[in-house]
Amino acid sequence: MGKLFDELAKDIHLQDGLNACINCGTCTAICPAADFYNYDPRQIVDIVQNKDDNQIEELLKSDTIWYCGECMSCRTRCPRNNAPGLIIIALRNLSQEKGYFIESEKGRQQLYIKRTIGQNILNTGYCLFMEGVGTDEHPEQGPIWDWRQQNWADVMERLGANYQKEGSGAMRKIPHEALKELNEIFKVTGGHERFERIEYYSAKKAKEMGFNPDKENNNDYVRYVNTTIEKDHHSRTHSFTK
Amino acid sequence: MNIDSKRHIWKNYQKEIADDHYFYLRSCVRQNFNPGAETTFLRIMKDVLKKDIYDDPAHTTCTGIGYHTDVVPFETIMTVVARQLALMTEKGYKNIAVSCVTSFGIYSEIFETWEHHPEMLEKARKYLKQATGREFELPDNMAHGSDVIYKFRKEIAAKAKYKLINKNTGRPLKVVEHIGCHYSKMFPHKGVGGAEYPYVLVGMIEEWGGEIIDYPERRHCCGFGFRQYIVKANRGYTIANSKKKFDSMQPYKPDMIIVNCPGCHVFLDKSQYAISELDGITYGENNLGIPVFTYEEVAGLILGFDPWDIGLQVHQVSVEPLLDKIGIPYDKNKKYLSKDGRFLGYPKKPEVLKVIL
User: What is the reported pLDDT for B196?
Assistant: First the structure.
């Protein structure tokens, strides 16, 4: 048994996600990521089940583990009750723990996610806080989203929200005491530690790639990882990628 | 497989749904993108069904999107969930009603984990006490918002002003139902009807007069994929997977799509615009797209709520053709008004997708 596999095996997602895989490929057949990316969950489960540390290390440093959308469709259909999606969570956890995520284009995107979703959680009490996040960032949201952004507070009020006010209701201002508790939970349970780890390794990589991580809170690099596709990641088999 | 066999299958996945006194847990996606759906849900619960449902100002995100983008560890999210349960316990409630399908999946996963790994439940208790001084009880019952509306679908039908029937032809409307992946794909027994033949939306549609369409990609994901949508460079994943569903349902000529997941609503609505701009393709009739609704919105409509009180003006795909088919009245001059009656201006028209302003 390899050392990296030993570490993976401590993760509850691996314990719950990996039984004996029979390599039938059902997971790959129904996987939305396998339809879009050059991605094969069957192969990932096989590598992990074989406990080959060299191959596992390669996976942890690859784009491959970041292609999954965690929809968990694989869990429903596996005839042996495996969950490749849970195995992916364990691999991503270890990749971030070891700092291997910065070695792949898709892995490096973790900094953008930490800076948006992660900071939203701690600063506002919501995963998403969309006021001001317009169609420059989300062109697919269409002209109705421009209208929403131009009339944000008015539309919120019209639809019964309690936008950033005290009391209950949609998009209420989460009380200071609640945010303090949320931060304390992150401190006690390793949430802050993961955020710091993502920042630490990303700053290292930014420097290596020629960015200046000390400038503007490393925002040039954050923009780069959010928007840049460095190579072709797509499946050649499906009609919508032709 | 014939329809009777399917009905037999879903009967194996019946679940208990509390009939009153709910502690409500809101959705981050819904509150930002579609707050009128939650407003409508609470209005139906309180004003129509006369149920007790508590909306606690101190509850927060469950951090589910952070967990499924892998920036939030399991120990953290389970302790945030424990805090929500502590609030429920302190307020004297025993049933949770969850607005979001991602959250519903999170609660399902955490309760399963605590059941099969009791040491993790102990850890959650210890972490929560250490971080906040709070303690919690496990709920007696967990239901998704769609479970609750499903439970009361007959009561809603009895009070309804409209049916899901085309008033011109007298035929039932053809409805695509889309279930959010995290409703029951991981834990089929947590959802009404399981994962392959979920009955939660089918039951509502059949009760309210519509006809369900079965199509090949019925169980395919909407394409959210968490990091695949959030990161700009990955977003083609979302649009391509939505397109796979639209291409599959289009030959069946659906009148409408109904969803139980806040995210699925956003992506199935907005992707129709994105696909029209990218590829020049539109779905539905007359380049107008296929209107997409949440289950609360549909319940509100048949109960006779004003469409603009429900929040249908924030959809990208226009809802008016569907309202016309059913015969639901609306005032087009009130569509873009503020609460105090000010005109907020018109949204711009897309280049390809036709919209009704």
Answer: 86
State the DSSP H helix or E strand holding residue B126, giving kind and residue range, or none if neither.
Answer: helix B118-132
In a domain, B10, yes or no: no
State which H helix or E strand residue A43 sits in.
helix A41-50
Residues of chain A found within 8 Å of residue B350, distances taken between Cβ atoms = 142-143
ipTM of the complex: 0.97
Q: Are residues B79 and B110 in the same domain?
A: yes
Predicted TM-score of the model (pTM) = 0.97
In chain B, residues with a C-beta closer than 8 Å to the C-beta of A123 are none
Cβ contacts of residue A127 below 8 Å, gap of 6+? A117, A120, A121, B28, B61, B63, B64, B65, B66
In terms of domains, do B200 and B103 share one? no
pLDDT digits 0-9 by tens, B229-255: 999 999 999 999 999 999 999 999 999
Q: What is the mean pLDDT of residues A57-69?
A: 98
- Given a contact cutoff of 8 angstroms between Cβ atoms, the answer to whether B274 and B239 are in contact is yes
Instruction: Flag whether residue B75 sits within 8 Å of chain A, measured between CB atoms.
Output: yes
Are the CB atoms for B15 and B191 separated by under 8 Å? yes
Are B186 and B325 part of one and the same domain?
yes
User: In chain A, positions 85-124, which contact chain B (CB-CB < 8 Å)?
Assistant: 89, 92-93, 96, 106, 109-110, 112-114, 116-118, 121
Query: pLDDT at position A240, please?
Result: 47
Residues B93 and B172 in one domain: no
Shared domain for B198 and B316, answered yes or no, is yes
Interface residue of B104, B228, B239 to substitute, partner A, most A CBs within 10 Å: B228
User: How many angstroms separate the CA atoms of B325 and B328, rounded?
Assistant: 8
Phi, psi angle pair for A13, to nearest 5°: -65, -35
- How far apart are the C-alpha atoms of A196 and A119, rounded to whole Å? 12
Cβ of A156 under 8 Å from any chain B Cβ?
Answer: yes
Do B270 and B329 reside in the same domain of the chain? Answer: yes
Say which CATH topology domain A3-106 has. Fumarate Reductase Iron-sulfur Protein; Chain B, domain 2 (1.10.1060)
Give B152-211 pLDDT, tens digit per residue: 999 999 999 999 999 999 999 999 999 999 999 999 999 999 998 899 999 999 999 999
Which residue is closest to B306 within chain A, CA to CA? A159
Q: Hey, are the CB atoms on B132 and A179 less than 8 Å from each other?
A: no
pLDDT digits (tens, 9 = 90+) for A204-217: 999 999 999 999 99
